[in-house]
Specification:
The chain is built from nine helices and eleven strands. By secondary structure, the protein is an alpha+beta fold. The protein is globular and about 55 Å long.
Length: 235
């Protein structure tokens, strides 16, 4: 009889092997990494770590979603990216030895694994190519954040909110959701922050979408009835 621990280990090894950062590791090497992986779970609104915190562990999302945000001295908060299943975060602190550069907060109920810094650093010393892949992943996220910030400078509120919702729909469809009636488990405040606008402005536009039959609003969730019509609001 196969134990639950063995099944969990095999699942973790399979997940790590699907990540581009670890795709060149052997099964034995992935197993050693999985041996030191620590399971983590977060409720919606729970913070994994705050910007400025010290820490050198990185995390891999198993399920759910989180948002990365950065705070300005003037009090504004900018959403940098959304993290979903298969995404890695927190590795920048391992490379730089500095404090966390962003706050990571769960949007949905989220499961993840934490990889402790000393264990990952030993892996990187043995496999320098893995470090290059992880840095490439970081560069991709920086480019994504830059594109989001740039688009927020030129798009109106309606376009930004519709764009955030459209990306949420696409992510869920990639995970198996239907073509229509796609449930997005996020609050209007989360949508507003990812769109770089106020909750009031986002709520007004979402109400317009509801009257047009494009979405159906609920407590802590949005049902996108017509994703194709939603895309028409992005410009």
């Amino acid at each position: 009889m196969i134990s639950d621990v063995s099944v969990e280990m095999e699942t973790t090894v399979a997940l790590l092997g699907r990540l581009s950062s670890f795709s060149e590791l052997s099964t034995d090497e992935l197993g050693r990494l999985a041996d030191v992986a620590v399971p983590r779970s977060y409720e919606p609104g729970e913070v994994v770590f705050h910007e400025g915190d010290m820490g050198d562990s990185c995390f891999i999302v198993l399920s759910g979603s989180l948002k990365a945000t950065h705070s300005h001295p003037d009090g504004r908060t900018i959403a940098l990216s959304e993290l979903r299943a298969g995404d890695m975060f927190g590795e920048l602190a391992m490379f730089s030895g500095e404090s966390r550069s962003a706050t990571i907060e769960a949007i949905e109920e989220t499961n993840a694994i934490a990889l402790l810094g000393p264990d990952v650093r030993r892996l990187l010393i043995a496999h320098p190519d893995i470090a290059i892949k992880m840095l490439s992943s970081l560069a991709d996220r920086v480019r994504t954040a830059n594109r989001r910030i740039a688009s927020q400078s030129f798009q109106g509120v309606a376009s930004r909110v519709a764009g955030v919702l459209t990306s949420q729909v696409a992510a869920r469809q990639a995970e198996g959701a239907a073509e229509t009636h796609v449930r997005v488990q996020m609050t209007q405040a989360d949508i507003a922050q990812l769109a770089g606008t106020s909750r009031e402005s986002a709520s007004r536009f979402l109400a317009t979408l509801e009257r047009a039959g494009v979405v159906e609003l609920g407590r802590g969730k949005i049902l996108v009835l017509d994703p194709e019509a939603l895309q028409g609001y992005v410009y």
